[in-house]
């Protein structure tokens, strides 16, 4: 199917008027070519000023969203750092406990060696083989 041409004989108007008419024809053409996406593109154009920049209201919303995201990131980071510090302290306590156990076991082993040496000396002196 052929689409009807959207060319019209326009009366001579000022440059701004011509641009407005051309923009209107472009919008109409967008509606005819892709009606599903036309509403989204028109909404985007309404939310931006003529240069394609966001308006002040959405800029404030972006700043608020950035601030909230920043605060949440700081809170999560603080929680993670606190958890890591807690783990470091727990690990240090466990290492201290294991060190004290090893020292006590080392003392026990040295005492057992002394007792073993005493028993060997006693057996050698008694002549029992």
Secondary-structure-based class equals mainly alpha
Q: Rough shape?
A: rod-shaped
Distance between the termini: 117 Å
**What's the helix count?**
3
Mean pLDDT reading:
78
Low-confidence segments: none
- Helix-strand sequence: HHH
Strand content: under 5%
Q: Give the number of DSSP strands.
A: 0
Radius of gyration: 43 Å
Largest sheet: none
Helix content: over 70%
How would you explain this protein's 3D organization?
It contains three helices and no strands. With 129 residues, it is an all-alpha fold. The radius of gyration is 43 Å and the shape is rod-shaped. The chain starts with 14 loop residues before the first helix and ends with a helix. The mean pLDDT is 78.
Question: How would you briefly describe this protein structure?
Answer:
The chain has 129 residues and is mostly helical. Helix content is 80%, strand content 0%.
Features of the shown structure:
mainly alpha; transmembrane helix; 3 helices; LSME1 protein; 129 residues; rod-shaped; single chain; transmembrane; 80% helix
